Amino acid sequence: MEKFDVIVVGAGPAGLLAAGSASETGRRVLVLEKMRQEGRKLLITGKGRCNITNDSNVGEFIKHVYPNGRFLRTAFGQFFSKEILELLHKYGVETTRERGGRYFPSSNSSADVLSALLKWVNELKVEIRCGQRVEKLIIEDQAIKGVQANGQEFRAGKVILATGGKSYPATGSNGEGYELARLAGHSISHVRPALVPLETDGDVAQQLQGLTLKNVRATVWVNDRKEGEDFGEMIFTHFGLSGPIILTLSRIVVDALHQKSKVEISIDLKSALDEQKLDTRLLRDLDESGKKRISNLFRNWLPSSMIPVFMDTLGIDPEKEGHQVSSRERRRIRNLMKDFRFKITGHRSFKEAIITAGGVSTAEITSKTMESKLVLGLFFAGEMIDLDAKTGGYNLQIAYSTGWLAGKSSRAEPLLTGTK
Q1: pLDDT tens for residues 77-126?
Q2: Which of 21, 26, 114, 258 is 20 to 30 A from 205 in CA distance terms?
Q3: Which positions ≥6 away from 43 have C-beta within 8 Å?
Q4: DSSP string covering 260-280, please?
Q5: 221-246 pLDDT tens trace
Q6: In DSSP terms, which residues pair with 160 in a beta bridge?
Q7: Phi, psi at 64, each rounded to 5°
Q8: In CATH, 2-192+357-409 is 3.30.1330.60
Q9: Which pLDDT score, from 0 to 100, does residue 322 have?
Q10: Closest C-alpha to 184, from 147, 149, 142
């Protein structure tokens, strides 16, 4: 049996921030990671580029966090985007701000972010042991006393669970942390994939596979009621829809599908034009190029790979000349451009979900410390808490901030080992 002041379970971004924060005043900190390498999931974030954080202010940030962004006010107040960027800069990571206020390492390499965090915790003499699967928490009289990993006991008066959710299970996030929390008496809110691609009915999306659309508006309709919308970029896949705006809207879709609701997504391909302005443009082009085939005219309106799909959906002869298009046909063209609709039949699995929705209930965690309200000395950080956000660096910032606050809060007495 070994003794430490603080034990952190999980060596992802939340766990590393927790470990570094906990050790800054000389605590003896142990990180137990079941994988053979730290930060496996961090390495694949942002398609390997790592969207570090976002420059939104705290108030705006909280609006994009579900189901209770206000829970994070203290955490964000103590460690936010400015602090994580300064920490990374200190250890050699230059950053670049991109569209939407998103920060990436200038090298476009998530490995540089992980390397910087590891340099930081190593300087603080944090001990990291990989290949250590925590099997149970040691709890006596509703107070944490340590953990058991690979059959061995590790004692500590403070334990921080930062095991991640269930998304990308190959990186180690397979939901084991939820079971540890449940056995400690905590409630686990409904766990489901979030920021996940969507599956569609029919073969239209498949015909458009690989096509990326920019500056379009997607709207979610649930039982014929508008439930949400987003503007930006999306992509068609062999199974349906993906891309930033689809992933953001997937939270609404997944919950609606769970309720067996009818779900559709409408794509407005001409969001910069209202119906009247679009109709005026169509009429002008048809008049000015009336002798051209309608299929050629469509090249002025849509990406070339969409034209055959549109012609088929509209049922218009592609050989028809522009001046032969009736007002009724023009209205159908306009309507389809403004409402290119897909029936949603499902969503991809945790293997393809960027993050997890659901988790340990925030009602059972003290927001000012990240400590359990049920077990003294037990803390939570990162994705295993019932908090999730849109794409754009928001979810990683939640991990940093909750990890930092949990680590700082764990510095309180008593110590089992004394200072280093």
Answers
A1: 999 999 999 999 999 999 999 999 999 999 999 999 999 999 999 999 99
A2: 258
A3: 110, 111, 114
A4: T--EEEEEETTTTS-HHHHHH
A5: 999 999 999 999 999 999 999 999 99
A6: 8, 379
A7: -100, 10
A8: no
A9: 86
A10: 142
Instruction: Indicate the domain borders of the chain.
Output: 2-192+357-409, 197-348
Residue 163, burial from CB neighbour count under 10 angstroms (0-12, 13-18, 19+): buried
Residues forming a β-bridge with 356: 193
Token readout for 235 is: 């992509």
CA nearest neighbour of 93 among 68, 114, 62: 114
Collapsed DSSP state (helix, strand, coil) of residue 42: helix
- 46: left (phi > 0), else alpha (psi -120 to 50), else beta? left
Asked if 190 and 355 touch (Cβ cutoff 8 Å), the reply is no
- Contact at 8 Å (CB) between 340 and 49? no
3-state SS assignment for residue 334: helix
Helix (H) or strand (E) holding 15: helix 13-23
Q: What are the tokens at 16? A: 């590393």
Residues 6+ apart with CB under 8 A from 122: none
Q: CA-to-CA distance for 380 and 403, rounded, in angstroms?
A: 8
Residue 406 pLDDT class (50, 70, 90 cuts): very high
Rounded to an integer, what distance in angstroms lies between the CA atom of residue 159 and that of residue 146? 7
User: Measured between alpha carbons, how far is 247 from 285 in angstroms, rounded to an integer?
Assistant: 35
The structure tokens listed for 330 are 């023009």
Q: For position 413, what pLDDT does the model report?
A: 63
Q: pTM for this one? A: 0.91
The three-point CA angle 358-180-75 to 5° equals 55
R_g over Cα of the chain: 25
Query: Among residues 62, 369, 365, 18, which one has the least CA distance to residue 163?
Result: 18
Strand, coil or helix: 368:
coil
